[in-house]
Each structure stands twice: as C-alpha cells, then as structure tokens.
UniProtKB/TrEMBL annotation:
<feature type="signal peptide">
    <location>
        <begin position="1"/>
        <end position="27"/>
    </location>
</feature>
<keyword id="KW-0732">Signal</keyword>
<dbReference type="InterPro" id="IPR010835">
    <property type="entry name" value="DUF1439"/>
</dbReference>
<protein>
    <submittedName>
        <fullName>DUF1439 domain-containing protein</fullName>
    </submittedName>
</protein>
<dbReference type="Pfam" id="PF07273">
    <property type="entry name" value="DUF1439"/>
</dbReference>
Length: 189
C-alpha cells in the first residue's frame, strides 16, 4: 500500500503522536490544577546521580553508599531514600560490614537555584547485621551521612521558561508528596 504524497504530513503527525505517547512524560505543568508534577521515576533518576558515594569519618571509618531506592511518603509529606552501606574500619583488621540506611528528607523550593531541594534529612533507620551493640554509634554516623549526602541536594531544577506563562513570571509554592509523584504548586509573582 502506498500513501499519496499529500497524506505524508498527516501520517507523520500520527506517528509522532503515537511515539510521544509511548515515551514517559517529564515534569509537566497541569493547567487545570496549576501544578508541576515530578514523577517518582524522575526523582529516582536525579537521586541516582548522587551515588555511589564514599564518606570518611575521623580517618577511621569509611562508609560506601550505593543503590539508592526512593520511597514517597505521602502521609508525612517526605521522601525516604534507602541505600546499601558498607562500613570499613581502618584501625581494625576485620572484613567490611554491610548494612542498609533509610534517610528521610523533606522537600523545599529554593528560588536562587530555581530548584526543588531535599530538606532537613535525618536518619530513619540503620540496619547492620551483628552490630546491635553499636546502634548508637551507627545512628550517629547515619545522621552525619544524611546531612553530608542529601542536605540541599537538588532533585529537580526548573528551566527559566518553565516559570513563565503567558508572559508572566510564576514561582513554585506548596510542595506536596503524593503516592507516585511530587506536586509543586505554581503561583503568580
């Protein structure tokens, strides 16, 4: 079957529409709700750029962090990042200790950076097999990890054109964590 040349532009438009529908949407503005929506997948991809990470404490303990997994906590309006951790001690000739950390963060908008940032990260949980007697020290290390690694980390940066509608400047307002997305309210300046 051959298409007439006059139908080629219409066929190309249909193909383009189908391809666009098949690709995942990026942060998008919803004119009906006045919000930008950042998908969990977008936020996960932004977080993955921060890992793997290696942190050292007092030239004694090294913590290697990898494999971040993002969980959106709608009830507390916060994000939780689960990471694998490997601790090594330079003073003791013992094998590395593997565990998991859960780091909990709020989200806020920074107008200077035009970015949604992780805010006030805290350690939510530390799991290290066979190290229960060191729970207090491990929680202290986890708290330092949370601050050093995630404090003010940008998970989304707005392009200048994303903050301009109909020739008017707009700015992000309330940020709401949902089950599968983060919604950023947009309001006029």
């Amino acid at each position: 079957m051959r298409l007439r040349p006059s139908l080629l532009p219409a066929a190309a438009a249909v193909v383009a529409a189908v391809c666009a529908a098949a690709t995942p949407a990026l942060a998008g503005y919803n004119v009906w709700t006045g919000e930008y929506t950042l998908s969990r997948q977008e936020l996960q991809a932004a977080l993955e750029q921060r890992f793997p990470a290696t942190l050292r404490y007092a030239e004694v303990v090294t913590v290697q962090l990898s494999h971040p997994r993002l969980v959106l906590d709608e009830a507390s309006n916060r994000l939780t990042t689960h990471v694998d951790a490997r601790l090594t001690n330079a003073l003791l000739p013992s094998p590395p200790v593997d565990g998991k950390l859960a780091l909990n963060s709020g989200v806020r908008y920074d107008p200077g950076q035009r970015a949604v940032l992780l805010d006030n990260p805290t350690v939510q949980q530390v799991e290290v097999n066979g190290m229960a007697q060191y729970r207090e020290q491990l929680n202290a290390i986890g708290a330092v990890v949370a601050q050093q690694l995630l404090k003010d980390y940008p998970v989304y940066t707005f392009k200048p054109e994303e903050l301009r509608f109909g020739g008017k400047e707009v700015e992000p307002g309330t940020i709401t964590v949902g089950k599968d997305e983060v919604r950023v309210e947009v309001k006029n300046r």
